[in-house]
Amino acid sequence: MRVVAVVNQKGGVAKTTTAANLGACIAERGFRTLLVDLDPQANLTVGMGIPWYELDSALHTVLLDPDETPLRSIITQVHDIPLYLAPGHLDLAHTEALMMPHADKAYRLRNAIEDLTRSESFDWVFIDCPPSLGTLTQNAIVAASHLLIPTEPKFYAFAGMDSLNKMIVALTKSLRFRVELLGVLLTMFERGTRLHTMIAAEIRERFGDKVFQTVIYKNVRVSESEVEGKPIALFDRRAPGAQNYEALAEEVLLRAAG
Amino acid sequence: MRVVAVVNQKGGVAKTTTAANLGACIAERGFRTLLVDLDPQANLTVGMGIPWYELDSALHTVLLDPDETPLRSIITQVHDIPLYLAPGHLDLAHTEALMMPHADKAYRLRNAIEDLTRSESFDWVFIDCPPSLGTLTQNAIVAASHLLIPTEPKFYAFAGMDSLNKMIVALTKSLRFRVELLGVLLTMFERGTRLHTMIAAEIRERFGDKVFQTVIYKNVRVSESEVEGKPIALFDRRAPGAQNYEALAEEVLLRAAG
Ligand SMILES: Nc1ncnc2c1ncn2[C@@H]1O[C@H](COP(=O)(O)OP(=O)(O)OP(=O)(O)O)[C@@H](O)[C@H]1O
Ligand SMILES: Nc1ncnc2c1ncn2[C@@H]1O[C@H](COP(=O)(O)OP(=O)(O)OP(=O)(O)O)[C@@H](O)[C@H]1O
Ligand SMILES: [Mg+2]
Ligand SMILES: [Mg+2]
Q: For residue A4, what are the CA distances in angstroms to A17, A23, A34, A121, A198?
């Protein structure tokens, strides 16, 4: 099983869009895939057409009391592919504050996933993170075997990548575990924009072959698919966005096999 | 003095871009304007051309110990207009955790600004918030007289506005103070995109005349100005982005006078 945390403290770089669409493309190839929505905005849940505000229990209740609400009790299948979702909820923000005094606060999600895999098997897990480096994101990094860092080719996103790198190194040292960088993904790339080409080149120079060959280009159909509560591959298979995420799925499977 | 918190837990909706450019346009009209960078990413500081990583003290040291490091000791003027900056720093994330046990944790910024205004006067203060509703953003809302909510005309940003509204109402009730919604600002609007037109109409229906008449259109020069560490009005006055933010400044001054 591979557990991938989709993480970047910069907001709006397509973390949720990548978790949803990469997860769906992997599931379409027959792999049992679990999406975990760890963001209080619950955009991944909304993007799969599930109204989080109607749910009694979601990820926040699991993290608060895993014995009372095990992860398997909140998981639901989405669409007709082996794609499953552990839904998020606005109260995750509150949970983050409540977990603060507990010594195991950074390990709650890792323990919950380990407990789940005793009764159900998954090939891939993708965790969508909030745009911050607080306790929720730390839970994702500790639970993960791999990290995927989406970034748009703009200055603020690029400027933040060094501190993200440093934080990840510091966290893995202090919490004594290993996590591998699966890759850095260029998202919302606008062809023919000088600024995007320039910053993408800087990112490739800084992160070398850690940057995926696959680039996700800006494509309005990606935004339109969110409104429909479907991943782009199920909404419009011919759209460039769908083809980009299919290519990314191939590249991720190759990297993980390597 | 008006203190405006630029807030939205959705990431990447142009909070920083709006604080920087609206602040600069207001300062250009002769108003003494202070920008406060309350985001651990310190993008506002970077966008003004200031390397936060070289600073010994910044907003994090003020919030931790306002007697030791008063706000006026970290303020610096930027460009040749009456525009000033209280720089942010990555350690603000750490500060947020350290403030948790203190009873006055939500009031630290408000107290720091009140202390500042005993020795220096400002007409306008704009506070750039991180993409979350945690203690840092609560500090901004408590310190503010007005809120400005930027949002892009996309589904996830729109879906999150109800919970943002509810949180603000709940916070102002529990902390017993009043804050006024200055307005909701449509940003990164792409003309001729059906999805943007549709969602903008939904936002105007939901928030009525709270939505600014001025719309900020997508304009690559805005992103290019960040790289130069200048607000768009100083980088390229003829750019559509500069004209949009000038028009917004006019509308904000009218609303505040009203
Ligand atoms: N390839 C793309 N083409 C066009 N629009 C895109 C693309 N990828 C993402 N978007 C749009 O950009 C917006 C931001 O993406 P998304 O919400 O996935 O980012 P995020 O990093 O999860 O944001 P947050 O930091 O708030 O969690 C979305 O509304 C989405 O519609
Ligand atoms: N009008 C515009 N036209 C083109 N690009 C824009 C515009 N406004 C903002 N941007 C770009 O969008 C990106 C996101 O904007 P910005 O960083 O200001 O959002 P934010 O809400 O502050 O993000 P975060 O949630 O991470 O703090 C920036 O890199 C900026 O260049
Ligand atoms: Mg997201
Ligand atoms: Mg910002």
A: 14, 10, 10, 16, 28
